[in-house]
Specification:
alpha/beta; binds zinc ion
């Protein structure tokens, strides 16, 4: 079997690849992830390394577009720059950026430090992780987009002074989230500070501009080390995930009333409340009068907390019973099924 991923070393190696358009680059990578190392400009001291990952989800192009710009400029840095271009197969099937992952694949951001390496994807991830773990990384970021409207924010899975500093370099808003989802950033977190950065909706020039700005700040930052005596920099706004809200699996649902006979119709435009207060008594959807609660909410310990958050009214309205701050509210049925409808958050103290 051919290699599990492409491996490029230095700009000379990348030259032919970078000549084409965005689509050409992905086409040339065909069906495999690409791991790139741009060696440090100076070899005087033993250089550290930084990693930027992108396209871990095939329908989230902002980070990849930002990284193409950087690589095309041909800049070199006082550290080794590692770049991972993730799920290329999903990014080019059925037109550009149509799939988070393909039906015959696992999610590429759920296969890091995971169980047995039974699949080509898992074997590729294991080999890439081995390379990255021996790269002497001082920091790593992973660039994503959201499927609903959200401000741009950083996700930190392990609270540490270095992690807070890295998050503050990337975004004004930070979400602390103990994912435990076998993401690349979690797998690398024992080695160096890591954050994922959500760059808003895909396919918007603002998302790519934000990703470019993050990449620029990340590459320009002098250090991510925090001396013990120092008060570390922190993002302006810090939240933590409290609960995960899903639609019960047997409930057919839709984000609009037209067509079909969904059991639950979700109120349109709720993603506008992401990172904002969705006030008590607000209607978030409708069921047939008399139908039971279509939503299920669990806290991070797995306890069912649905009754503390939502109520189905006799007239069929589904309301929130307390002020909540939703994050990552999606607007697609597929994403709501694959992950969840939204999470709730609270201030991190
Ligand atoms: Zn993503």
């Amino acid at each position: 079997m051919a290699g599990l991923y492409h491996r490029f070393e230095g700009y000379e190696d990348l030259k032919a690849l970078l000549e084409g358009s965005e689509e050409d680059v992905l086409g040339a990578l065909a069906d495999k992830p690409a791991l790139i190392r741009i060696p440090a400009a100076s070899t005087a001291a033993a250089p550290k390394a930084r990693l930027i990952a992108c396209l871990m989800h095939g329908n989230e192009p902002s980070g990849f577009q930002a990284m193409l710009e950087v690589l095309r400029r041909g800049d070199r840095f006082p550290f080794d720059l590692w770049v991972l271009i993730g799920n290329v197969r999903a990014a080019i099937q059925d037109g550009l950026y149509a799939h988070r992952h393909l039906d015959d694949q696992e999610d590429f951001n759920r296969v890091w430090d995971v169980g047995p390496a039974t699949t080509r994807m898992r074997r590729g991830a294991a080999a890439i992780l081995e390379e990255l773990r021996s790269a002497d990384l001082e920091a790593a970021i992973d660039l994503h987009n959201n499927s609903g409207r959200n401000p741009c924010y950083a996700i930190l899975t392990q609270l540490s002074p270095e992690g807070l500093l890295l998050a503050s370099v990337c975004a004004d808003t930070m979400l602390h989230w103990r994912l435990r989802a076998h993401t690349l950033m979690e797998a690398l977190a024992p080695a160096c500070p890591t954050v994922s950065v959500e760059c808003g909706l895909p396919h918007l020039p603002e998302g790519t501009a934000f990703a470019s700005a993050v990449v620029h700040r990340f590459l320009a930052a002098e250090t991510f080390a925090v001396p013990a005596a120092d008060e570390p920099a922190r993002p302006q706004r810090m939240l933590e995930i409290l609960e995960r809200v899903t639609v019960r699996p047997e409930v057919a649902f839709s984000f609009h009333a037209a067509g079909g006979q969904p059991d639950f119709v979700i109120a349109p435009g709720l993603d506008a409340y992401n990172f904002d207060v969705l006030p008590a008594d607000h209607t978030i959807g409708h069921v047939d009068p008399g139908a039971a609660m279509p939503l299920l909410a669990r806290d991070m310990a797995g306890r069912d907390v649905t009754d503390q958050l939502f109520r189905a009214m006799p007239d069929g309205r589904v309301i929130v019973v307390t002020d909540i701050v939703p994050v990552m509210m999606t607007t697609t049925v597929q994403q709501a099924r694959r992950d969840c409808l939204f999470y709730t958050s609270g201030p991190l103290d």
